[in-house]
Write a structure and sequence with these properties.
By secondary structure, the chain is of the alpha+beta class. The chain is 49% helix and 19% strand. Strand 4 and strand 5 form a beta hairpin. The longest helix is centred in the N-terminal third of the chain and has 97 residues. The protein is elongated and about 120 Å long.
C-alpha cells in the first residue's frame, strides 16, 4: 500500500479515538456505549480501507515490475542493436575513407599526367610564336611581342610569315574560347594563313580563302576566329592589311608622334559562307610602328571595377611608342599588370610591335 493511503487511515483512526476520549471526559460516560459503537464502526472502515488499498497496491506493484522487466529487455535489445549499428558505421566510415584515399591518389596521378601533357602542349604552342629574333631577323624592321595565356595553353596567335624574299605577313588571331580546343584551332589558324599567304597577294583574298577552309571544320564545332592580317612589302615600304572582325591595328607615326587605329570591313572567320573583307594600304616611314593585339589586352578589370579599355591602351602605347619594340612592349606589359594587379586574367593576352626601319636594297626573287 502506498504511503499516502497509510497516512489517511492513521489520521482517520486517530480522529475517532480523539472524539471518543473527549466525549467520555465531558459527559462522564453517559454516552459511552454510543461512542464505543462509533469507534468500532470507524475502526472497521479504516481497517477495510487498509486491506483494500494494500491489495490494490500489490497488484499495481506486480504490473509495474512486469513493465520494468519488459523495459529492461527492450533496453537490452536496444543496446545490442546500437552496438551493431556503431560497428556497421565504423566499417562504412573506414570503407569510405579508403575509397577516398584511392580516388585522391588516382586523381593526383591523372592530374600529374594531364599537367605534363599541358606543359608539353604549351611548349609546342610557344614554338609557333616568333620567340627568337634569329627566326625572323632583317635589317629593314625589328619587332617584339608579349603573350600571356589565361590558362596553361591559350587560343591567341601571333605569327610572322615570310612571303617570298622581301615580304612578311604579320598575323594576330583570337580563337573563341580557351584551353585545349582553342589551342588546337590556333594551330590550324597558323597553318591556314601560311598556306594562303602570297607575294603581293591581297589580304582580303587571303582572309577569304582562310574563311573557306574554316567553314569545313569550325561551323559544326561552334568555334570562330577573329584575325588581323597585315603584309609588309620591304621593297616598296608599303603595308596592306585586312581585319577579319578583329581589334584595330594601332599605327604609330614617328614623324607626327600620333597613333591611328586602322580599321577595315571584315567578318569573323569560320561562320559566314558569303563573307565581306576589305583591304587598305599605306606607305610606312622609317621608325613607324604597328601594334597588333587581342581583346584580352583591353578586357581587363581592376579591383575597383574599372576596365582598361582601348582608349587607355592607346594612351599607354603613345606614351612609350618612341622606345625600341622590346622596351615599348615591356613598358606596356608593366602598365597592364599594374592596372589589374592581383586580378586573374580571364582572357589570353597578346601584343606584337613591329618597327619599320627602311626599304630593302635587295630585289625580289
Amino acid at each position: 500500500m502506498g504511503d499516502s493511503c497509510k497516512v489517511a487511515c492513521g489520521v482517520l483512526m486517530g480522529i475517532t479515538l480523539l472524539l471518543a476520549g473527549g466525549t467520555l471526559w465531558f459527559h462522564g460516560g453517559v454516552s459511552f456505549w454510543i461512542l464505543l459503537g462509533l469507534l468500532v464502526v470507524n475502526t472497521g472502515v479504516a481497517v477495510a480501507m487498509w486491506f483494500s488499498l494494500g491489495r490494490q497496491s500489490s497488484f499495481e506493484t506486480l504490473e509495474y515490475r512486469q513493465f520494468l522487466q519488459s523495459l529492461r529487455k527492450y533496453l537490452s535489445h536496444h543496446r545490442v542493436a546500437d552496438q551493431k549499428l556503431k560497428e556497421y558505421y565504423e566499417e562504412l566510415k573506414n570503407l569510405v575513407e579508403e575509397k577516398e584515399r584511392e580516388t585522391a591518389s588516382l586523381l593526383a596521378s591523372i592530374n600529374l599526367n594531364l599537367n605534363e601533357q599541358l606543359a608539353m602542349a604549351r611548349k609546342v604552342q610557344m614554338a609557333f610564336m616568333p620567340l627568337s629574333q634569329s627566326s625572323v631577323e632583317r635589317s629593314e624592321f625589328r619587332w617584339a611581342f608579349w603573350y600571356q595565356p589565361a590558362e596553361t595553353i591559350g587560343g591567341d596567335l601571333l605569327d610572322i610569315i615570310r612571303v617570298g624574299r622581301n615580304g612578311y605577313a604579320f598575323v594576330v588571331a583570337d580563337v573563341s574560347g580557351h584551353g585545349i580546343p582553342s589551342a588546337l584551332l590556333t594551330s590550324m589558324t597558323k597553318v591556314a594563313f601560311i598556306n594562303h599567304s602570297g607575294w603581293e597577294k591581297d589580304p582580303a583574298q587571303v582572309c577569304a580563302e582562310v574563311n573557306r577552309d574554316f567553314l569545313k571544320t569550325l561551323r559544326d564545332v561552334g568555334f570562330y576566329v577573329t584575325a588581323f592580317y597585315a603584309f609588309l612589302n620591304l621593297e616598296k615600304g608599303t603595308l596592306s592589311y585586312t581585319s577579319a572582325g578583329h581589334m584595330p591595328l594601332l599605327y604609330y607615326s614617328s614623324h607626327e608622334h600620333t597613333l591611328t587605329p586602322l580599321h577595315t570591313k571584315g567578318t569573323i572567320l569560320g561562320v559566314f559562307s558569303d563573307p565581306v573583307f576589305e583591304s587598305q594600304k599605306l606607305e610606312m616611314n622609317p621608325h613607324d610602328k604597328m601594334f597588333l593585339f587581342t581583346d584580352g589586352l583591353v578586357d581587363i578589370q581592376n579591383r575597383d571595377g574599372e576596365w582598361f579599355g582601348v582608349e587607355k591602351l592607346e594612351k599607354v602605347v603613345l606614351q612609350y611608342a618612341h622606345l625600341s619594340p622590346e622596351r615599348c612592349v615591356e613598358a606596356i606589359r608593366q602598365e597592364v599588370i599594374r592596372f589589374g594587379w592581383g586580378e586573374k586574367n580571364v582572357d589570353d593576352q597578346a601584343l606584337l610591335c613591329v618597327e619599320f626601319l627602311s626599304r630593302t636594297k635587295k630585289g625580289h626573287g
